[in-house]
């Protein structure tokens, strides 16, 4: 389905920006374009965006449609889950070249007409949690996180975090933090269902646990509000998604779990981040690096799809090719104060993805630039300075 920035999304962005600023004056509007590159009055700092340090090769998972959804109790022994397959084991967020995670994590997905279902199984010898308030910063505990970008434009996407106490933080990202945000903590998923089961004893350092599991049911009714495409999906639709497990190193002191600290600084050691589809950076908010979930209605369809260029659509490959323009433009404007006017100026004379029309057309706009790339089927791919990417007929 062709996509473009909608009036609804534009209005949502404007209201969020106004809410963050406390008002919406004429000074918030974009000034007229100039020939000098970036213009005064930008709504966010035009800093560089480091490129991922790994090749783009997103994991792909075919999500099967269920006749009867699972009971949401945190246990993954329902017959419904037996109709699905596990993802591969999670890897370090920076990529598979890093050491394998200390504990195994894997996930399952499914859908029906009411919900998108996610389940995860996490090995953990000491299951603990401290946060009990809804919308607390859950990754201060060990947690499991879900990220969804239905229309793959990298804007207006969803994040859900849950700890072992089944405390939830659900939020909507208007834009990635690198592109000015903001995150809308006040957005709640009405009808969200989550449950956790602990194979062991929670917050008991005197024994050794096997781990914990989680089930999440996300209602399509809420996702449809800002999905930018049909929800529930149709068979064959593809969304961008990723899952992250945050794991802190802990020790037992005075009969309780505490985070392990660096003796030199006295600060807690950095957390581990283990993911389904690696990001190439310690940063989840690079939606272009997330995996791909394809919705299917046949229980006989293999869950795992072949990876590599042959498994990716022309649209997906075109948006990734244009992402290189975005990275290079943001680096250039930070270094020189000006936008490039051609792919050649960005040292992108050759296509970064094979078998695509190239180069794109670059044009200055009131707020920055827009790069446009025609596709073979008559549609057009676009990207602009704040990373928004879309397809038009």
How do the helices and strands line up, and which of them pair or pack?
Elements: H1 7-21, E1 60-65, H2 79-82, E2 91-92, E3 105-111, E4 115-123, E5 143-149, E6 157-163, E7 168-173, E8 183-184, E9 193-199, E10 211-219, H3 220-223, E11 238-247, E12 250-253, E13 256-259, E14 272-275, E15 291-296, H4 314-336, E16 361-364, E17 369-374, E18 380-384, E19 389-392
Parallel strand pairs: 1-3, 1-15
Antiparallel strand pairs: 2-14, 3-4, 4-10, 5-6, 5-11, 6-7, 7-8, 9-10, 11-14, 11-15, 12-13, 16-17, 17-18, 18-19
Shape field: globular
Using the coordinates shown, work out and report the CATH topology of the largest domain.
Immunoglobulin-like
Low-confidence stretches: 1-11, 13-41
Q: For this entry, what is the oligomeric state of its chains?
A: single chain
CATH architecture of the largest domain: Sandwich
Fraction of residues in helices?
10-25%
> What count of structural domains?
2
Structural class computed from helices and strand pairing: alpha+beta
Largest pleated sheet = 13 strands, mixed
Using the CA coordinates, give the radius of gyration: 22 Å
Order of SSEs: HEHEEEEEEEEEHEEEEEHEEEE
For this structure, what is the CATH class of the largest domain?
Mainly Beta
Mean pLDDT: 89
Characterize the structure shown.
This protein is α+β, with helices and mostly antiparallel strands. The protein folds into 2 domains: about 120 residues, no CATH class; about 250 residues, Immunoglobulin-like. It contains 4 helices and 19 strands. A hairpin with a 5-residue loop joins strand 17 and strand 18. The longest helix is centred in the last third of the chain and has 23 residues. It starts with 6 loop residues before the first helix and ends with a strand. The N terminus is likely disordered.
